[in-house]
Write a structure and sequence with these properties.
Strand 1 and strand 2 form a beta hairpin. The chain is elongated. Helix content is 30%, strand content 20%. The chain has 2 domains: 337 residues, Zn peptidases (Aminopeptidase, 3-Layer(aba) Sandwich), CATH 3.40.630; 199 residues, Glucose Oxidase, domain 1 (3-Layer(bba) Sandwich). It has 588 residues and is of the alpha/beta class.
Length: 588
């Protein structure tokens, strides 16, 4: 997932039941009155429920898919050779299980292709010590082992840069203060309690995310600061940079690398004109702390590091893996229900929980329905995205090509933001296919089992989903919330008026240990939870493709409200350049 998960709320909850739409101007584009009518009682096929449960719980392939993806291919940075392998592998798996038209769709140019081959860091003076460290994505290589004196640089604002002028040449720079390392006195691994789930059901009336503007302001401030900092470090001819690993929830960032993406310098390090030309690594906080304290006490430290990376091209394109189970109803077969997750990951681990889990669950959904020889009335389409971690690029590109998009604002303040945070610069432009897609279902909250679903403010689906979920209560699926949840690919659909849904999942150790860390590996996956998730998602997809009506929609998004919806806000900048980062060792 693009960012650490937090519950954020829409500025307004817009209900779109057919009975609530009083005039034609309010109706979702392309829909007529007969499509708007929704039945009071859902037609539930319990035989289908039983068959899906049997196939998904007793004959699951989900961990086989997980092993092939996380172990066999490994980390899948967008634009990298491993990402290309994952696209091809998932396409072939979908063909093998019986899907049709399995193919890759190009969503456009991404940028630099890159992979890490080897990284190691050690202290050689005043003592020898091996550190846990990894290159940050798109870091250049060191051209063999480099040995240099270490120096700490604490730069909170542009005025701090002058303190280090002429002092960094040939040095390995510890960029940023030593953070607190709290005692882990709370569990790393947890599930939602009944109270947690009950609390999710209530919708706070204030709406919006009160911290969003403050976070955006910090983001812009950091962008401007790194825009000054990087040229300075280039001019100083530093030998390399080490940044500290961040913390996780409940102090979970101890003893691991957490995280590689948050340590990358520069707003778009995957574009050649903004790439960082010196090696950058992120170190385990305990390793970083030892060197930082020695320097703080004026003890000279020598660091040796070797960063071996490979660039594979400056203009790599991004691709989504797409395949279908064709619809069979002559009236409805052109309509679509989509299921998906993002295939790309960061590099410290193998992308198992973020979001290998959602990807292999989507594969398993398609396998279950193919194995049961389901004849869906509508077409079922799977899409496995790339570029999610850098800004929802894969799903945004797909939605733009197939369904519609907003032209983005070019106002000066908006141009300081990444594309996915900019406000609309005009009305929503829809494509004919937009009216044919009923819903998109997404899993991207780690390995935890499904406990319910976020409706993104689409209260018209509450009674529908409640009836679908009633036979699933024994699997722990109980909760419907009209809250929004942000940070992943369902937002691309929600932005253009298509019902996009993310499931509520048990937190497990996602926020504490595995999200964007070197702990994000196969071992963190929970087989029973992934089986349950696949069964639940398969049942939701089955119900959506078999019902007579499409899923009800909210009114089309209004441009003036779109900027207040829940959005991802990635940490693509080091803690070293956060405002008020702290004080460091005195520079000699």
């Amino acid at each position: 997932m693009l960012q650490r998960r937090s519950l954020v709320f829409a500025a307004a909850v817009m209900v779109a039941a057919g009975s609530a739409l009083s005039n034609a101007a309010d109706k979702p584009a392309g829909w007529n009155d007969s499509q708007m009518q929704q039945p009071t009682t859902e037609s539930i096929d319990l035989n289908a429920y039983n068959a899906i449960r049997e196939e998904g719980l007793q004959h699951s392939h989900v961990m086989d898919y997980a092993g092939g993806l996380a172990d066999g291919i490994g980390p899948r940075l967008t634009g990298s050779p491993n990402m290309a392998k994952a696209n091809a592998w998932t396409r072939d798996q979908l063909t093998k299980m019986g899907c049709v038209n399995a193919h890759l769709e190009d969503w456009g140019e991404f940028g630099i292709g890159w992979q890490q081959l080897n990284t190691w860091v050690r202290m050689t003076e005043p003592d020898t010590a091996v550190f846990l460290a990894q290159a940050t994505p798109w870091s250049p290589a060191t051209n063999g082992p480099v040995s240099a004196q270490a120096i700490a640089a604490i730069i909170n604002d542009e005025s701090d840069i002058a303190k280090y002028k002429g002092k960094l040449s040939g040095k390995i720079v510890l960029l940023g203060p030593m953070r607190d390392v709290p005692v882990p006195d709370k569990p790393f691994f947890e599930r939602y309690t009944d109270k947690d789930l009950k609390d999710l059901e209530s919708l706070p009336v204030e709406g919006g995310d009160p911290d969003m503007q403050a976070r955006i302001d910090r983001y812009v401030k950091r962008t401007k600061l790194t825009g000054k900092l990087i040229p300075f470090l280039i001019e100083e001819k530093v030998a390399g940079v080490i940044v500290p690993s961040r913390d996780g929830k409940n102090g979970g960032g101890t003893g691991i690398i957490f995280d590689d993406n948050g340590a990358a310098l520069g707003r778009t390090p995957y574009h050649r004109d903004t790439a960082v030309p010196f090696p950058v690594v992120v170190a385990q906080i305990e390793s970083y702390g030892r060197v930082f304290r020695l320097l703080e006490n004026h003890v000279p430290v020598t660091i040796e590091m070797n960063v071996e990376t490979k660039f594979t091209g400056d203009h790599e394109h991004g691709f989504d893996t797409v395949a279908e189970i064709p619809g069979t109803d002559p009236r409805l077969k052109d309509e679509i229900v989509m299921v998906g997750g993002h295939l790309d990951s960061w590099i410290a681990g193998t992308g198992a929980t973020d979001n290998g889990a959602g990807s292999v669950v989507a594969l398993e959904v398609m396998r279950i329905l193919n194995s049961l020889k389901v004849k869906p009335r509508r077409t079922i389409r799977i899409a496995l995205w790339s570029g999610e971690e850098e800004g929802l690029f894969g799903s945004k590109g797909y939605v733009r090509q197939h369904f519609g998009s907003f032209p983005l604002s070019t106002a000066p303040d908006q141009m300081e933001l990444p594309e996915f945070l900019r406000k609309p610069g005009g009305p929503l432009e829809l494509k004919p296919e937009q009216k044919l897609i009923s819903a998109y279902f997404n899993v991207d909250n780690g390995t935890g089992r499904v406990r319910g679903i976020y409706t993104q403010g689409n209260a018209a689906v509450d009674s529908i989903f409640a009836q679908w979920m009633a036979p699933l209560r024994d699997l722990g699926v109980t909760t419907i919330t009209n809250r929004n949840t942000g940070g992943t690919d369902h937002l691309s659909f929600d932005d253009v008026g298509i019902p996009g849904f993310q499931f509520i999942q048990d937190p497990m150790d996602y926020e504490t240990r595995t999200h964007h860390s070197n702990m994000d590996t196969y071992e963190r996956l929970q087989p029973a939870d992934l089986k349950q998730t696949a069964v639940v998602e398969a049942i939701f997809v089955y119900n959506a493709v078999m019902r007579e009506q499409m899923i009800p929609r909210k009114p089309l998004p209004r441009p003036e409200l779109r900027d207040q919806q829940s959005k991802p806000l990635p940490d693509l900048y080091p803690t070293a350049v956060l405002p008020d980062a702290g004080k460091g060792p005195e520079t000699k």
